[in-house]
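cron nightly-structures :: item 1 of 1
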Amino acid sequence: MEAPAEQPSVHMVVETQPSESLPVVVESQPSESVLMVESQQPPKKSSLNKYALACALLASTSSVLLGYDIGVMSGAVLYIKDELHISKVEVEILVGSLNVFSLVGSLASGKTSDSIGRRYTIVLAAATFLIGALFMGFAPSFPFLMAGRVIAGIGVGYSLMIAPVYTAELSPAMTRGFLTSLPEVFIVFGILLGYISNYALAGLPPKINWRLMLGIAAVPAIAIGIGIFGMPESPRWLVMKGRLSQAKQILIRTSDGDESEAELRLSEIISDASANSSSEWSGQGVWKELARSLCGPSNPVRRMLIAAIGMNFFMQASGNDAVVYYSPAVFQNAGIHDRKQLVGVTVLMGLAKTSFVLVSALFLDRYGRRVLLLVGSIGMAASLGGLGLGSKYLEGSEEKPMWAIAVCVVAVCADVSFFSIGLGPITWVYSSEIFPTRLRAQGTSLAISVNRLVSGLVAMTFLSFAEAITFGGMFFVFSGVMVLASVFFYYFIPETKGKSLEEIVTLFEDDRSKINHLST
């Protein structure tokens, strides 16, 4: 394809006043000296900035809360069912309610973080989850337990949006993929902690074990709330509020003390945010702009929304959360009936998820988002197809041969591993980096709200559908969903590796026919 003629770029000259007021942005034509300076600029640094890493680790720790709940509930529900004598439908409501009510937190988190800042939104998320965990830990009845799930769900919704957005806005372009994938690493680590907690506490009396399993989640929530106060605010949020000197100081620290690089990054951010920046800005009018873009004719914001919402939809329509939540039921159906063995197999699954999400995080900035996303999605489709075949064979067999059980266990581990390579981390990375600064928090919150809604619906209907069409039938459905997902990702997801957040916006200004060539 013939490359378009190169056009002279328009350079933004930033004139700042002594006060913290918004800078005046003036357009000027490039001179020869400017072009010479541009040609002599050093390449973007790919080394990992320790300050950005520390901040990303602290912010991402809030994602442990969701992961722990997913992992621990898979085992705790076995004992809750026995003590509180709840039905299968009540089990589905109990498990899925946290995801459904996290929709509330996800929707509110965008406006909240635009108003009070990214950092204090993380504190709010941890505090809300803490209250929910205490309710669940001391629950004397099913309604009390449900109240705790609702409150904790709102906290989870806040944390799922704010952790990747904060990290993306703080991170240098060349390491943003790794740093922004850390929330998924912590989700998976939380799942593993939940499985280990199940295994360690399973031997306690039924009236105590499940309450401890759920109540222990209050401990990391307290630690997160305290640790966040040592973190800086997002430099891009500070620019939107007109607090330029504070933003510059943070950018200098995330640029290894290189003031010239920090100045370049600051000028890019100011150029992107200049039309909206003021001390009174709190995200007003964003929802209307998103709604007009989604319902109106094709435009860059609409393409961003399609990409982000589509990716979040397929992340949960893949059935990954349901497989993790109901893994004991899946393995019981496969022929494993001893509870200790059931919990042990889930620990093995957690180890597989943890190992591969680390692999993805380490290679995300080297190979890019598209490659790992497509590998993970195609791998999930194949794994779920194999799991469906194994489950169907066992459903028609009275003997339950060990090799068939092993096939199912390997297929489940392969499914969650491919999820951890692709959709798991890349959904959070991509959703938080493709929107312009003024739309980022609320655009991401809209996409993650779809994520939470679909997750809740799948979790609350999985057992009922499995009873109607069998577990094997459900896995064939999920396999088909992942085939469709792979096609969607190929045509609608451009590569963002190594680009600044401001540069990424231009990818969605290209023609739709070119978008699948943007990986090069």
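cron nightly-structures :: done
DSSP finds 23 helices and two strands in the chain.
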